[in-house]
Design a protein that fits this description.
The protein has 106 residues and is mainly alpha-helical. The protein contains 2 helices and no strands. The radius of gyration is 22 Å and the shape is elongated. The termini are far apart.
Length: 106
């Protein structure tokens, strides 16, 4: 039994964002810049949470409470550094290959 496949050309009239992401480089550029912004917001929130945990642990002699805020702050900072490292790696690949991956406007 033959099956029928209906395909639809995805263009700006069907899906308006398709006009912006005309190639893979524009998609990566948009995702990475938004990921860095999201990571910065999450780092800010984790610093606030770690601060509250530190204040709560200050009056407590429990070593687990002290370790909890340190881990929160450390994991937040490490995550942010990893996101920034991915950005730097993309710039490095772009520089070596000469292919425009990130469209950076300074």
């Amino acid at each position: 039994m033959p099956s029928v496949v209906h395909a639809l050309d995805i263009n700006e009239t069907v899906f308006p964002p398709a006009g912006y992401f005309v190639d893979f480089a524009k998609l990566i550029n948009s995702l990475l810049s938004n990921l860095i912004l999201l990571a910065a917001i999450i780092l800010f929130l984790l610093v606030i949470v770690a601060g509250f945990q530190m204040i709560q642990a200050a009056g407590n002699s429990d070593p687990k409470a002290l370790e909890k805020w340190r881990k929160t702050l450390t994991f937040g900072a490490v995550g942010f550094v990893l996101i920034l490292a991915s950005y730097v790696i993309m710039l490095f690949i772009q520089k070596i290959t000469g292919i425009t991956i990130l469209d950076i406007d300074f």
